[in-house]
Amino acid sequence: MKTLLAIGLSLSLSAFAASHKVLTVTSDRDQDTTILSVETNANGEATALKVVTTGNGLLVNSASFTMEQARAGRAILFKSDKYEVIRLGLESRFEPIYGGPVKLDYLANGITSSRKKMALEAVREGDRWVVKFNGATVTKAFVKSNKVIGKVIGVSSITF
């Protein structure tokens, strides 16, 4: 009976381990769609960030980043050639059980290597994770390209 109870408890706890789709990102550069998800363990704590990009129904890119990589600002949403165009970084106050501040860092101008930052928040609400911008829950982001003579040189703006 104890074994049966232990198996049942184990199965019910593992049901909480999940992937929480928190943001869908599109741009004016192409038709690709990028999904950002928070991966959680059986206790609902954030353990990783996952980025999956598809285009024309095909997988373009898939990457997972540990919490340590994200804390170091190494969770890359978009990369073009040698440039890390958009990356996420968890601020020091971010806690895997509750969430906290997240920094969105993007390349504004590849010619001058200038970057800009935006403040977001990843928050656990009950048994799901959400992203907030200026206090409001957001599920979609649109990236507008910064162009010079028709050539993309960076990101002009990101709207939610």
Short characterization:
This protein has helices at 2-14, 67-71, and strands at residues 19-27, 33-40, 46-55, 58-66, 75-80, 83-90, 99-109, 114-125, 128-133, 136-138, 140-148, 151-159. The chain is mainly beta.
Q: Explain this structure to me?
A:
The protein has 160 residues and is mainly beta. 11% of the residues lie in helices and 62% in strands. It contains 2 helices and 12 strands, in the order H-E-E-E-E-H-E-E-E-E-E-E-E-E. It has helices at 2-14, 67-71; strands at 19-27, 33-40, 46-55, 58-66, 75-80, 83-90, 99-109, 114-125, 128-133, 136-138, 140-148, 151-159. The strands form 2 sheets. Strands 4-3-2-1-11-12 form a 6-stranded mixed beta sheet. It has a 6-stranded antiparallel beta sheet with strand order 5-6-7-8-9-10. The model is unreliable at 1-15 (pLDDT under 50).
Task: Note the main attributes of this structure.
six-stranded antiparallel β-sheet, disordered N terminus, globular, single chain, 2 helices, 160 residues, 11% helix, six-stranded mixed β-sheet, mainly beta
Distance between the termini: 52 Å
What oligomeric state do these chains adopt? Answer: single chain
Structural class assignment? mainly beta
Average pLDDT, rounded to a whole number, is 90
Total beta-strand segments: 12
Order of helices and strands: HEEEEHEEEEEEEE
Radius of gyration: 18 Å
Low-confidence regions: 1-15
- Name the helicity range: 10-25%
Strand order of the largest sheet: 4-3-2-1-11-12
Shape: globular
The proportion of strand residues reads: over 45%
Biggest sheet character: 6 strands, mixed
The helix tally amounts to: 2
